[in-house]
Amino acid sequence: MAMAALRREGRRFAAPLISPQPITAIRSSLIAEEQVPVGVRSISTQIVRNRMKSVKNIQKITKAMKMVAASKLRGVQSRTENSRGLWQPFTALLGDFPSVDVKKNVIITVSSDKGLCGGINSTSVKISKAIYRMTSGPEKEAKYVIIGEKAKAQLVRDSKKDIALSISEVQKNPLSYTQVSVLADDILKNVEFDALRVVFNKFHSVVAFLPTVATVLSPEVLEREAESGGKIGDLDSYEIEGGETKGEILQNLAEFQFSCVMFNAVLENACSEMGARMSAMDSSSRNAGDMLDRLTLTYNRTRQASITTELIEIISGASALEG
What we know:
Blueprint: H1 2-17, H2 20-34, H3 45-94, E1 104-110, H4 120-135, E2 141-147, H5 149-155, E3 163-167, H6 177-190, E4 195-205, E5 208-217, H7 219-227, H8 246-322
Parallel strand pairs: 1-2, 1-4, 2-3
Antiparallel strand pairs: 4-5
Helix pairs in contact: 3-8, 4-5, 6-8, 7-8
């Protein structure tokens, strides 16, 4: 009889335990905890501390990258300014013809091998694509020569079949005219062209760079332009010595002009890259500082709320014991 009474008591208390009401209450409380946004007082202080630690580490990295870019910029800037005197005499003698109409165009896009330098690579790619649309047609041919991994990663998506040559790790060693002249010679041997259009970013200041297009014509086009008169026709007024013909002189001038333009373009783009990286890392460091301030405020509020809750529990417990 005692066992039968115990079963009756168990059945009487089992109904409320298996009723859906407590389960619904527990489920709603769990959902409420999962939907709590970051930054409110119910967040764990350990999560905030881990987030603060991550932001501090990121800030240290961005500050270090800014200092490295600043040190590299000092060395590249002086060489960049000196390199401008190489190609300017060619522009004065042969001119620059960005709107020349030829059949074979080669667009040389100069970019960087590394990122975290703002939008200089995207700007060069956009201008290269615009030049490609302008110079391509039914009776025309346009190809890309890419210098740098970042431009290659963007152009290979929709223009893979139009890429004639891709070169990377140009800035792995300190840039010199010998290194760039070898690079220019490889380009001249591997592509056929009537006009080479070099797209790069010209350095103005740490926070400003100007997308620039330099045009180098082939010896045949130069000779044709010289015969038709114009600025290149002024070469007839110079005395030719050494037994070389006018075509041979134009070919040597075109090759030397292209190597000088490439040397200046690579240096200008490297200088713009360092300046853009300095600006980007400075903005990242300031943003990390602002985020760290917000996380510190959240941490202090959460810690204060937990301390206040513990004090209320202690006081309530003491009052209950005394009462």
